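Course assignment 3, question 2. Fill in each field.
Student: A.L.
Task: Predict the tertiary structure for the chain below.
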Amino acid sequence: MSVDMTASQPQARLASARDYVELMKPRIMMLVVFTAVAGLVAAVGVTGQGMNPILAGVAVLAVALGSGAAGAINMWYDADIDEVMVRTSTRPIPSGAVPRSEALAMGLIMSALSVLLMWIASNVLAAALLALSIAYYGWFYTMVLKRRTDQNIVVGGAAGAFPPVIGWAAVTGSTPLDAWILFAIIFFWTPPHFWALSLVAHKEYAKAGVPMLPVTSGAKATRLQILLYTILLIPIGLSPLATGLGGWVYAATSVALTTGFLYFAAKVYRSRAGEADAGDEERKLAMSMFGFSILYLFGLFAALIIEHGFGLYFGFGGV
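Answer field:
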């Protein structure tokens, strides 16, 4: 599906600061920044390498700007889809607050600035990974995958999995196995997380012509995939215990949250969520799993921050 850049523009309204913040997808940005901080803190705790706190702050800011840049580019390109879907029709571009061209310019300028800041604050590897993550989401997922394949979320999930690797690279200038374990947790978490939402929003995706899995393969196949990916996520989520990245706090947190995640996945699988005759309870169940999945990811990375916080406290201060 191509984007019709000549389509009629919505009636303009006066843009507010909130509209420009909304262009950056702040809720996604918060999760991106949080996981990047977890990677950075874990790297300090595991390796004992220090990082100047000011430069660490600049590196985190760079990640935030990069996430916001990718979000703005995504909203620029997907404005035609957003206009059709009720859930996204009030976003800044379809609502007429921000012109498409302005959103694109904002995304490109922020992209360049974020990569430059990361390079200055840390090293070329972290800057290159940040540039790759922006391109992956803003171009590969948004422009190549999203409208062409129902595996868009699976393959495109790598975009959101880069932040902890970037945070680790900012400290050490390298990306060891532990960093890629954090990448894998987010990568395999993304499909069940997003498909739970898509079970509820499948009619809107169908209306917009976006081939999300419930649209192309049906609700039953989607519920099965949610369960299978959740089962696959179990050993990956526990793998930091095998490498020593996670300690007893992480162990207790991951076991509890993994049990909850699997519970929701099994309940959704046995339900009729996403079916044409699904009731409010099925829809609420899918949304409950979507909400719990956010808690799952937040909890795992929070446990790492807690466990390696002492490493952060004693490790920062290096030049």
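Instructor remarks: Residues 177-208 form the longest helix (32 residues). The domain at 19-312 is CATH 1.10.600 (Farnesyl Diphosphate Synthase).
Grade: pending
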